[in-house]
Write a structure and sequence with these properties.
Oligomer: homodimer
Number of helices of chain A: 12
Strand content of chain A: 15-25%
Number of strands of chain A: 15
Shape of chain A: globular
Order of helices and strands of chain A: EHHEEEHEEHEHEHEHEEHEHHEHEHE
Strand order of the largest sheet of chain A: 9-8-7-10-11-14-12-13
Structural class of chain A: alpha/beta
Helix content of chain A: 25-40%
Mean pLDDT of chain A: 96
Distance between the termini of chain A: 15 Å
Radius of gyration of chain A: 19 Å
């Protein structure tokens, strides 16, 4: 008789269990499995009202074990101002893919942050110039922090430009991360000047207005466009996006909620202009970077492929290390 | 500062908190609100593999408070035989619709059973002849039990026929419910003979083959077709379904996973042949039964409208009565 206990993992439990390095490795593998037809396309669902929305992303990872995850994130952008609550709150349901048993319920934010940063790292590994040294981080929140750490796992970064419309947040980013990561970080405000000196640009703001223009970006740059993950969000001008080599996490998802969405709506390009999905490059089905001069843009909307892969690691480690509280919900 | 505790409610907690009578009332109201344009269309998502599948239904109930629910049910039909586990296992996530706060996590099965039975009761109230006395229950599992109880809330039932391909289950149904409900229940095997004597017929089996023929049903009967809730399930022959007055819970959902699905695929009818959604009749936008002779079929696939309405009651009562365990997931 199998145990019917469900493991309850708080934000801290998840943070303690999941390392960025593991997350990068498993996210890379998940994208590859998907491209090879060994994972089915993940599904998404959204319910919205005037104050925000609820988004569910669900996927199934079938390796030795079969593992299902559905992540529900509530996104209420004015929460902090209005209620002192985080904008994003949610839970991930993990189930056995062979029996449907409810294995775990995890607070979702750490998984969202790490798996998104991990995708940026994986994409940079395949799409940035190997000698990339200078990074611009636009948006100095949690995602900016983990993005920088993920880039440092795959490239020898020497210099960082930190940009945020909130200069206090940028300042904190500079102080905390330059110490923690032992790297030179400079707060900047002149996007044109500083992006032109960057090998890698990460955009991870909540912006609904594009702010990165085509002329800001020098040849050879890799851009991870992370912020746009709903149809009203946008960070890159479509002229920049449409003119360069586009790699998506999932093309169908980017077409509805990513930077790609805006380029399609504006009629600048069609789906056929998308060069590849990240997994196709990892799996060797398509070449990654083919010249030192091309600008490559990774449209990152965040997928259930990443969620389920990261959650599987969290769950396995929690069981092994006996972390979390157990509850038999079916009693 | 608002509390950020999440309430954990086990199967027993939910069963103790939710009465069938309350559930019928709230389900009736939810269908009505939806028909009046005061609830948005709920969303569904499905992920399947060879052994089963995961289904998510999500909806938002906005009355005085705003309440979101997403219910994830795993359905693995061979679970009991293979692993000694229930076929359906799942959890319902309840969130504040204004702030996205994670209010509660509930084991889902009791909500699924009760809200489905409640819809049968509500449909019978509007669509069966008021003097209906004799009921046939096809499928003597949990859903058969709650369906009978729900019918007894809305009609003066005097006689019940219990049919199940598993005669031990039918026998248990007869013994237990005739005592509990103080009513005459007879186990039957001749569908044609006994359905012809029934005013109300409920089908709630896991059948993938239709077994109710057109000639089994007498004029004036109300049929609640509850079993079909995925594209491969079917209980009524399409000739029976297509020839009569069809009321759905949600037409778009029935068209993909209900009895309606099969009638459409077989080309017997088009969507235009559907008479109404249940909510339209409750709201008075369309008439219910207009003659004592018509056969009316309610295609019940189970909707998030019902889930969110039932979960809102469970949550409010749990808070008031201080039931359930609290956990701060965001710590």
């Amino acid at each position: 008789m199998r145990s019917t206990d469900t493991l309850l993992l708080t934000r801290k439990n998840v943070a303690d269990l999941l390392s960025l390095e593991e997350c990068i490795n498993t996210v890379e593998e998940a994208f590859k499995l998907y491209a090879e037809g060994k994972m089915q396309p993940p599904k998404i669902l959204g319910v919205h009202n005037q104050k925000g929305g609820f988004h569910i992303k669900a996927g199934l990872l079938e390796k030795q074990d079969s593992f299902f995850a559905a992540k529900m994130n509530a996104n209420f952008p004015n929460n902090m101002k209005e209620y002192g609550l985080p904008a994003i709150q949610g839970v991930l349901i993990a189930s056995d893919g062979e029996t449907g048993q409810l294995l775990a319920l995890m607070y979702s934010i750490e998984i969202t942050i790490l798996r998104t940063g991990a995708a940026t790292g994986v994409a940079a590994k395949y799409l940035s110039r190997p000698e990339s040294k200078t990074v611009a981080i636009c948006g100095c929140g949690n995602q900016g922090r983990v993005s920088l750490k993920a880039l440092m796992e795959v490239r020898s970064i020497e210099k960082v430009f930190a940009f945020d419309t909130d200069s206090i947040r940028a300042d904190r980013f500079v102080k905390e991360l330059s110490k923690e990561l032992n790297i030179t970080i400079e707060q900047v405000t002149d996007l044109e000047k500083n992006l032109n000196q960057s090998d890698i640009v990460v955009t991870c703001t909540p912006s609904k207005q594009p702010f990165i223009k085509r002329e800001y970006i020098k040849p050879g740059t890799f851009i991870a466009a992370v912020g746009a993950d709903s149809e009203e969000k946008q960070e890159l001008y479509t002229e920049l996006f449409a003119a360069n080599k586009i790699v998506t996490d999932l093309t169908v998802q980017c077409a509805s909620i990513g930077e790609l969405h805006h380029a399609l709506v504006n009629g600048h390009i069609t789906i056929a202009n998308v060069y590849a999905e990240l997994g196709e490059i990892i799996a060797g089905l398509k070449e990654g970077r083919t010249s030192d001069n091309e600008i490559i843009i990774f449209d990152s909307t965040g997928t259930a492929l990443q969620d389920v892969a990261a959650a599987a690691i969290v769950y396995k480690k929690a069981v092994t290390m006996e972390v979390g509280m157990k509850l038999n919900f079916s009693n």
